[in-house]
Design goal:
Number of helices: 2
Oligomer: single chain
Radius of gyration: 29 Å
Number of strands: 5
Order of helices and strands: EEEEEHH
Structural class: alpha+beta
Protein backbone atom coordinates (compact mmCIF):
# COMPACT_ATOMS: atom_id res chain seq x y z
CA UNK A 1 0.00 0.00 0.00
CA UNK A 2 1.19 3.53 -0.78
CA UNK A 3 -0.33 6.90 0.04
CA UNK A 4 0.38 10.08 -1.87
CA UNK A 5 -0.70 13.70 -1.51
CA UNK A 6 -0.11 16.11 -4.37
CA UNK A 7 -1.60 18.97 -6.39
CA UNK A 8 -2.22 19.00 -10.12
CA UNK A 9 -2.72 22.12 -12.25
CA UNK A 10 -5.44 21.66 -14.86
CA UNK A 11 -4.29 22.17 -18.43
CA UNK A 12 -7.85 22.56 -19.70
CA UNK A 13 -11.30 23.37 -18.34
CA UNK A 14 -13.23 20.52 -16.74
CA UNK A 15 -17.00 20.80 -17.07
CA UNK A 16 -19.31 22.38 -19.62
CA UNK A 17 -22.23 23.77 -17.56
CA UNK A 18 -22.67 27.14 -15.89
CA UNK A 19 -20.00 26.11 -13.37
CA UNK A 20 -16.72 24.35 -14.09
CA UNK A 21 -13.15 23.87 -12.98
CA UNK A 22 -11.08 26.47 -14.84
CA UNK A 23 -7.90 25.73 -16.74
CA UNK A 24 -4.94 26.69 -14.57
CA UNK A 25 -6.72 25.92 -11.29
CA UNK A 26 -5.31 23.36 -8.87
CA UNK A 27 -6.82 20.10 -7.67
CA UNK A 28 -5.45 18.67 -4.44
CA UNK A 29 -5.38 14.89 -4.40
CA UNK A 30 -5.00 12.49 -1.49
CA UNK A 31 -4.59 9.01 -3.03
CA UNK A 32 -4.19 5.53 -1.57
CA UNK A 33 -2.93 2.72 -3.83
CA UNK A 34 -3.41 -0.87 -2.68
CA UNK A 35 -2.18 -3.99 -4.41
CA UNK A 36 -4.93 -6.61 -4.70
CA UNK A 37 -5.10 -9.90 -6.57
CA UNK A 38 -6.93 -8.42 -9.59
CA UNK A 39 -4.87 -5.22 -9.89
CA UNK A 40 -4.41 -1.94 -8.04
CA UNK A 41 -7.25 -0.49 -5.97
CA UNK A 42 -7.14 3.31 -6.03
CA UNK A 43 -9.06 5.25 -3.36
CA UNK A 44 -8.88 8.90 -2.57
CA UNK A 45 -10.29 12.39 -2.41
CA UNK A 46 -9.97 15.38 -4.70
CA UNK A 47 -10.45 18.96 -3.51
CA UNK A 48 -10.85 21.90 -5.86
CA UNK A 49 -12.83 25.09 -6.38
CA UNK A 50 -15.40 25.47 -9.12
CA UNK A 51 -16.32 28.84 -10.61
CA UNK A 52 -19.29 30.03 -12.62
CA UNK A 53 -22.53 31.91 -12.16
CA UNK A 54 -25.58 31.50 -9.95
CA UNK A 55 -28.40 29.72 -11.78
CA UNK A 56 -30.98 32.19 -10.43
CA UNK A 57 -29.40 35.67 -10.33
CA UNK A 58 -26.32 35.21 -12.57
CA UNK A 59 -23.96 36.46 -9.86
CA UNK A 60 -20.39 35.14 -10.07
CA UNK A 61 -19.73 32.31 -7.63
CA UNK A 62 -16.75 30.23 -6.57
CA UNK A 63 -17.23 27.31 -4.18
CA UNK A 64 -14.95 24.56 -2.90
CA UNK A 65 -15.86 20.95 -3.60
CA UNK A 66 -14.51 17.69 -2.24
CA UNK A 67 -15.20 14.40 -3.95
CA UNK A 68 -14.28 10.83 -3.07
CA UNK A 69 -13.39 8.20 -5.65
CA UNK A 70 -12.47 4.53 -5.75
CA UNK A 71 -11.67 2.32 -8.71
CA UNK A 72 -9.92 -0.96 -9.47
CA UNK A 73 -7.20 -0.72 -12.11
CA UNK A 74 -7.00 -4.29 -13.42
CA UNK A 75 -3.86 -5.97 -14.67
CA UNK A 76 -3.86 -6.38 -18.47
CA UNK A 77 -5.47 -9.63 -19.47
CA UNK A 78 -8.11 -11.21 -21.61
CA UNK A 79 -11.03 -9.20 -20.20
CA UNK A 80 -11.56 -5.60 -21.27
CA UNK A 81 -11.90 -3.13 -18.40
CA UNK A 82 -12.33 0.62 -18.26
CA UNK A 83 -9.18 1.13 -16.18
CA UNK A 84 -6.01 -0.91 -16.54
CA UNK A 85 -2.53 -0.86 -15.07
CA UNK A 86 -0.17 0.17 -17.87
CA UNK A 87 3.58 -0.36 -17.49
CA UNK A 88 3.27 -0.48 -13.69
CA UNK A 89 1.46 2.88 -13.68
CA UNK A 90 -2.14 4.00 -13.25
CA UNK A 91 -3.53 7.05 -15.04
CA UNK A 92 -5.78 8.89 -12.60
CA UNK A 93 -6.84 11.74 -14.91
CA UNK A 94 -9.99 10.11 -16.31
CA UNK A 95 -11.05 8.78 -12.91
CA UNK A 96 -10.59 12.12 -11.13
CA UNK A 97 -12.13 14.12 -14.00
CA UNK A 98 -15.29 11.99 -14.02
CA UNK A 99 -15.68 12.13 -10.24
CA UNK A 100 -15.04 15.89 -10.08
CA UNK A 101 -17.29 16.88 -13.00
CA UNK A 102 -20.15 14.67 -11.76
CA UNK A 103 -19.92 16.38 -8.35
CA UNK A 104 -20.63 19.83 -9.86
CA UNK A 105 -24.09 21.16 -8.97
CA UNK A 106 -26.65 21.07 -11.78
CA UNK A 107 -28.33 24.32 -10.67
CA UNK A 108 -25.76 26.20 -8.55
CA UNK A 109 -26.95 29.10 -6.40
CA UNK A 110 -25.05 31.88 -4.65
CA UNK A 111 -27.06 31.28 -1.47
CA UNK A 112 -29.81 28.77 -0.63
CA UNK A 113 -32.58 31.38 -0.59
CA UNK A 114 -31.43 33.35 -3.66
CA UNK A 115 -34.52 35.21 -4.97
CA UNK A 116 -33.14 35.42 -8.54
CA UNK A 117 -33.96 38.08 -11.11
CA UNK A 118 -37.06 40.25 -11.41
CA UNK A 119 -39.05 38.88 -14.38
CA UNK A 120 -40.10 42.34 -15.52
CA UNK A 121 -36.94 44.40 -15.15
CA UNK A 122 -34.21 41.76 -15.13
CA UNK A 123 -32.67 43.35 -12.03
CA UNK A 124 -31.34 41.20 -9.20
CA UNK A 125 -33.82 40.83 -6.38
CA UNK A 126 -32.66 41.06 -2.81
CA UNK A 127 -34.41 39.10 -0.08
CA UNK A 128 -34.79 42.06 2.30
CA UNK A 129 -36.22 44.63 -0.16
CA UNK A 130 -38.54 42.33 -2.06
CA UNK A 131 -42.14 43.56 -2.01
CA UNK A 132 -44.84 40.93 -2.34
CA UNK A 133 -47.26 41.89 -5.08
CA UNK A 134 -50.44 40.18 -6.23
CA UNK A 135 -49.88 38.35 -9.47
CA UNK A 136 -51.97 39.64 -12.35
CA UNK A 137 -55.20 37.65 -12.71
CA UNK A 138 -55.98 35.97 -15.99
CA UNK A 139 -58.96 37.81 -17.56
CA UNK A 140 -60.75 34.48 -18.06
CA UNK A 141 -61.11 34.23 -14.26
CA UNK A 142 -62.54 37.77 -13.95
CA UNK A 143 -66.15 36.56 -13.56
CA UNK A 144 -65.19 34.37 -10.60
CA UNK A 145 -63.33 37.32 -9.05
CA UNK A 146 -66.53 39.41 -9.26
CA UNK A 147 -68.57 36.65 -7.59
CA UNK A 148 -65.99 36.34 -4.82
CA UNK A 149 -65.99 40.13 -4.31
CA UNK A 150 -69.84 40.19 -4.13
CA UNK A 151 -69.86 37.34 -1.61
CA UNK A 152 -67.41 39.11 0.71
CA UNK A 153 -69.40 42.35 0.42
CA UNK A 154 -72.64 40.52 1.33
CA UNK A 155 -71.00 38.95 4.39
CA UNK A 156 -69.86 42.34 5.65
CA UNK A 157 -73.46 43.65 5.46
CA UNK A 158 -74.98 40.72 7.39
CA UNK A 159 -75.41 41.39 11.10
CA UNK A 160 -72.96 39.39 13.16
CA UNK A 161 -75.26 39.01 16.16
CA UNK A 162 -78.24 36.85 15.20
CA UNK A 163 -79.34 35.95 18.73
CA UNK A 164 -83.06 36.07 19.40
CA UNK A 165 -84.24 37.74 22.60
Amino acid sequence: MREHQFSVTLKEQWGEGIVSFEAGSDIDLDVRLESVHEGVLVSGTAEAEYVGVCGRCLKDIAEPVEVEFQELFAYPGEEETDFEVQDDHVDLETLVREAAVLSLPFQPVCQPECPGLDPDTGERLTGSTRVEEDAPIDPRWGALRQIADQGSAAQSRDPENTEES
